[in-house]
Design brief:
With about 240 residues, the protein is α/β, with parallel strands linked by helices. The chain contains 10 helices and 10 strands. Helix 3 packs parallel to helix 6.
């Protein structure tokens, strides 16, 4: 694997809150164009991992390389470098319109040629309901539509790496299926993703590789088919004896 094909490389990542060690020496990598899923039980440190990578939580590490360079130390600089975080529970601005929420995601590109109209059409093509309701307040959307808006906002920044935190959280089965289809389309278009997901079946359908995170450490890692066939994973996460 050449350095140009490795978007993210993490060695020895640790996060603690007081005396509680939440992440204890995480090693991982994400290659260009792939989707890496991180699964595990509640409290395993999955969201903390994403927040550490986007510099929202303090952390220590041996090294974190992003797109061939050391990952910036601040959250702002990290976003500007191309690592974009779509957070758990959407975090939209409910009083702003859908269009306004989406356009906020383009702020990373403000010093580059104006691609806002092109990127809006890309998002609206992916999520047609957002185009129909572009002038509505984001707070009036359903949970699934809010998730679409959050993902769309992240795509407006043309991320080098998109961090997706629990995109199906609290959604019905039918809405989950729509989100799965959207994420697969985004991946097919070439967006590199690091996906944190509680729903293991969903994660397996989207990911090229999977990491199982338990007690703040990597318990299993490998291609999706290998992890899905692992007897421990099948029993602990898929309910198959």
């Amino acid at each position: 694997m050449s350095s140009t094909d490795r978007v993210l490389s993490v060695a020895g990542l640790k996060v603690s809150f007081g005396k509680a060690q939440v992440l204890d020496g995480i090693d991982l990598h994400v290659d260009r164009g792939e989707c890496l899923a991180v699964v595990g039980p509640n409290g395993a440190g999955k969201t903390t991992l994403l927040r550490a990578l986007s510099r929202l939580n303090e952390s220590t590490s041996t090294s974190i390389e992003f797109d061939g360079k050391p990952l910036p130390d601040s959250a702002y600089a990290t976003v500007m470098a191309g690592l974009v975080h779509c957070p758990e529970r959407r975090r939209l601005f409910p009083g702003l319109t859908i269009r306004d929420n989406l356009e906020l995601g383009a702020r990373r590109l403000r010093k580059q040629p104006d691609t806002k109209a092109e990127d809006l059409e890309r998002v609206f093509s992916l999520f047609p309901k957002l185009k129909e309701r572009a002038s509505q307040s984001a707070g009036t959307l359903s949970g699934g539509e809010q998730q679409q808006c959050a993902i769309g906002r992240s795509l407006m920044g043309r991320p080098t790496l998109l961090l997706l935190d629990e995109p199906t959280l609290g959604l019905s089965v039918g809405v989950k299926e729509a989100i799965i289809g959207s994420i697969q389309t985004i991946k097919d278009a070439g967006t590199t993703m690091l996906l944190v997901e509680q729903d293991v079946n969903f994660a397996f359908r989207c990911a090229d590789r999977v990491i199982v995170l338990e007690h703040g450490q990597v318990a299993r890692e490998g291609p999706t088919a290998q992890i899905a066939a692992d007897p421990y994973v099948k029993q602990a996460y898929l309910g198959v004896a």
